[in-house]
Design brief:
seven-stranded parallel beta sheet; Rossmann fold; three-stranded mixed beta sheet; about 20% strand; about 325 residues; binds nicotinamide-adenine-dinucleotide; alpha/beta
């Protein structure tokens, strides 16, 4: 099977390409490299281009005859999305519409979409089920929710079949050490804490008391779920939305303790006022993915997450680039 991996030079997309290649798929990455890396797109052909480049997108569909599309490409920073809503709606919503239209035009109907726990907004229950009401509280979450709705409209009107995967907090790095997180600027907790421990950065800003709880899911577990999702679609099982998390939350302070344990270095920190409106806790109920998709997290204990990330972040950049 040949699959289009939109945004496949990024963090989760590149790990997914590795998992796909292992299973015999040909992953064709299409990425504008705005936040992705050429060195991360090494598991199949790379097309450098933008989601909004209608003509290149169409040429790419015609050149490869895809069996399915995995759509990772997006602007990803919740806080930035509140300052630059126009750019977030343009890239995430208009960009996704361009992709759906290219799929429709070229007769490709199977899609796996990277959504997020941010579509839920403030949780009303300890663990979030897929049926929890969606009420995003930031622009990023809004964009993902809008794309989910667009996908459902294409399902109804054009016979699309999509698996929507709502990731909780992606973390960790490839178990063989050949891929990992490399965002610039970095906004995720574990890479920042590690760069403080490794003395690349002076300190970590903590907004609030450090008790905010998140469900950290190893990026290799996420990658493997995409293989299950493609198998689900190939078996004609139809549209479905799944949470991808562990069902277990960790506080920010627990994560920092683990970073200090693994690195044997202190994580210097500066306490800043709490940011209003951020959920105190976001934890998945992953039962549906366990029962229907046959997927379970295997590498998502905090120690494996932090130690694989530590191994990756300790490498000099030139080695990451394969030079
Ligand atoms: N990282 C997380 O914890 C997390 C959690 C929930 C959901 N997600 C979602 O998962 C997906 C992947 O996240 P990630 O952390 O790997 O992000 P990432 O930024 O590393 O990867 C996204 C990739 O998409 C590319 N891209 C963005 N806009 C593009 C465009 N217009 N045209 C072509 N390429 C474009 C970027 O260059 C990048 O390589 C995103 O959709 C994100 O919203 C991530």
């Amino acid at each position: 099977m040949t699959v289009l991996v939109m945004g496949g030079a990024g963090y989760i997309g590149s790990h997914t390409c590795k998992a796909l290649k292992k299973k015999g798929y040909l992953p064709v990455v299409y990425d504008n490299l705005q936040n992705g890396h050429r060195w991360a797109a090494k598991f199949g052909p790379l097309v450098v281009g933008d989601l909004l480049d209608e003509s290149l997108l169409d040429q790419t569909f015609k050149a490869y005859k895809f069996d399915a599309v995995l759509h990772f490409a997006s602007s990803i920073d919740c806080r930035a999305s509140m300052h630059y809503p126009g750019s977030y709606y343009q890239n995430n919503v208009v960009g996704s519409l361009a992709l759906l239209q290219a799929m429709q035009k070229n007769g490709v109907r199977n899609l796996v979409f990277s959504s997020t726990a941010a579509v839920y907004g403030l949780p009303e229950t300890d663990k979030l089920k897929e049926t929890h009401r969606s009420a995003p509280i930031n622009v990023y979450g809004n964009t993902k929710w809008m794309v989910e709705e667009m996908i459902h409209d294409f399902e109804r009107a054009h016979g699309f079949s999509a698996v929507i995967l709502r990731y909780f907090n992606a973390a960790g790095a490839d178990l063989d050490g050949e891929l990992g997180e490399a965002h610039s600027p970095e906004t995720h907790l574990i890479p920042i804490a590690l760069s403080v421990a490794l003395e690349i950065q002076s300190h970590l800003n903590i907004f609030g008391d450090g008790n905010a709880i998140r469900d950290y899911i190893h990026v290799t577990d996420l990658a493997n779920a995409h293989v299950n999702a493609l198998e689900w679609l190939a078996a004609g099982k139809g549209p479905m939305t799944f949470n991808l998390g562990t069902g277990k939350g960790h506080s920010l302070l627990e994560v920092l303790q683990m970073v200090e344990k693994i690195s044997q270095k202190p994580v210097k920190r500066k306490i800043e006022p709490k940011i209003q409106g951020e959920p105190p806790s976001l934890v998945a109920d992953p039962t549906l993915a366990h029962e229907l998709l046959g997927w379970k997290s295997v590498f998502s204990d905090l120690e494996t997450i932090v130690s694989t990330a530590y191994h990756w972040h300790s490498k000099p950049y030139c080695i990451k680039e394969g030079k």
